[in-house]
Amino acid sequence: MPIKTKRKRWVLPRHILVTKLAGLVIKPWALLKYHIRIEKPNIDTKRQYLILMNHQTAFDQFFVSIAFKKPVYYLASEDLFSMGFLSTLLKWAVAPIPIKKQTTDVQAVMNCLRVAKEGGTIAMAPEGNRTFSGLPVHINPAITPFIKKLNLPIAIFRIEGGYGIQPRWSDVCRKGRMKGYVSCVIEPEEYKNLSKEELFARIQTELYVDETQFAGPFRHKQLAEYLERAMYVCPYCGLTEFHTEGDIIRCKTCNRQVRYREDQRLEGVGFQFPFPYVAQWYDYQCDFVRQLDPQQYLTEPAYRDTVQLSLVEPYKRKHLLQENAPVELYGNRIQAGKLTLHFEDISVITVLGKNKLNIYHTGGLYQFKGDPRFNALKYMNLFFRSKNRETEDGQPQFLGM
User: Fold this and answer.
1) Beta strands in 189-302 (DSSP E)
2) I need a labelling partner for 119 at 20 to 30 A (CA). Which of 111, 127, 170, 358 fits?
3) DSSP H helical ranges for 215-254
4) Cα–Cα distance between 295 and 21 in angstroms, integer?
5) pTM of the predicted model as reported, rounded to 2 decimal places
6) Is 155 helix (H, G, I), strand (E, B) or coil?
7) In the chain, how many domains are there?
């Protein structure tokens, strides 16, 4: 008869010590780097919560930890768990909960239930992605049955001004102001009788932050630098490439230049640019792609790039396949070095961080890492445009985020 081994606990006493020690460094660092004002929550922070936050900067989780001053178990992209020793150290120190982006991850749900049963507070960004435009991105409706399964009080943590300080596409933090605070708590007794649709609408409303409402100023010498990681459609040229320098983004096709100002507004240099903010330009780009016919790019690629190509062993490590792999994006496939990745064999494509790309293919999980100006977003958007073109139902077509 096999001997049953006792399963190790997820929630451990050492996480309290790690959180306290890390707080001594993280709080002053966050105040210095981000100029953030974190309001003391007017709630009982000793309680157990499901913390839901909007997602604006790469360090949002630290802002939550400063506010709650207790171990918080974050859902984190599986890429965080494929970095060898560093991943092992993070698992030992803070035990994040791995989740596969853009998929229904049953194991992640089971792990959350386990953490909740052990008394841990869980935090996640329902959007699953940092915004590229300053407006909220897609939230998977599956969040509502997940919430009801956990049956924890929901603490809504709002971050405002984060996009102005550090847009996802930028490498620098601007001088400006942002804040983080608990805006409300939704008790289980309050949401248990709500329908899935009603609860979903409530979550969307509570997490909605329009960054165009925060005029700054946000100051830096490189305000537009690397905006080409987000933008690849010119309102005058269509699909194109851009180059940025300082506060200027320039279309390589028509050479028009647009200035990114300290109040986040856009202005054409010598002409009237049609979009006041990146948010409106980004929405135009998405609408442009939704109208695009992928079939016109079956023979000649829409884009060519060079990337570092790796095969990812999930939750373990990455294996470098080719340092400088030529990549071509077609309307039905991606050619990466000697690999041909047909869209029909790809389940999902996700963008990680600023410009890395994960491709979940039947042959394995491939990752592209380009140069600093590489635009990964276009690969995800064109893949979803091709994949969903036969299932249009009158709703805006999902382009990956």
Assistant:
1) 233-234, 238-239, 242-245, 248-251, 257-260, 266-268
2) 127
3) none
4) 56
5) 0.92
6) strand
7) 3
Among 79, 245, 75, 86, residue whose Cα is nearest residue 150: 75
In a domain, 393, yes or no: no
Question: With the CA atoms of 238, 359, 169 and 125 taken in that order, what torsion angle do they form, in degrees rounded to the nearest 10?
Answer: 120
**Residue finishing a domain among 291, 320, 337:** 291
Q: Where are the beta strands (DSSP E) in 266-302?
A: 266-268
Query: What does 157-206 look like in DSSP terms, one character per residue?
Result: EEEESHHHHS-TT-SSPPB--EEEEEEEEE-HHHHTTS-HHHHHHHHHHH
Any idea what the Cα angle at residue 37 is, between residues 263 and 18, rounded to 5°? 130
**Residue 219: DSSP 8-state:** B
Q: CA dihedral defined by 67, 70, 76, 78, rounded to 10 degrees?
A: 150
Same domain, 111 and 32: yes
Asked if 148 and 123 touch (Cβ cutoff 8 Å), the reply is no
Please tell me whether residues 271 and 302 are part of one structural domain. Answer: no
Q: Are residues 87 and 114 in the same domain?
A: yes
Domain final residue pick, 255, 273, 291:
291
Segment 69-82 shows an average pLDDT of 86
Strand order in the sheet with 356-361: 339-342, 333-336, 317-329, 303-313, 364-370, 356-361, 346-352
Q: Is residue 76 part of a domain?
A: yes
75 and 201 within one domain: yes
Range of the domain at 46: 14-213
At 122 the pLDDT is 97
Q: Is residue 8 part of a domain?
A: no
d(CA 112, CA 106): 10
The Cα–Cα gap between 86 and 157 comes to 28
Using pLDDT thresholds of 50, 70 and 90, give the confidence band for residue 104: low
Please tell me whether residues 273 and 313 are part of one structural domain: no
Gap between the Cα atoms of 6 and 112, Å rounded: 19
Q: Which of 297, 368, 299, 300 is nearest to 336 (CA)?
A: 368
305 and 361 housed in the same domain? yes
Q: Is position 299 within any domain?
A: yes
CATH number at residue 299: 2.30.29.30
Give counts: helices (H), strands (E), the chain.
10, 20
For residues 285 and 302, state if they share a domain. no
Q: What pLDDT, on the 0 to 100 scale, is given for residue 69?
A: 85
List all residues 6 or more positions away from 198 whose beta carbon is below 8 Å from its beta carbon. Answer: none
Residue 315 has pLDDT above 90, yes or no: no
What 3-state DSSP class applies to 121? strand
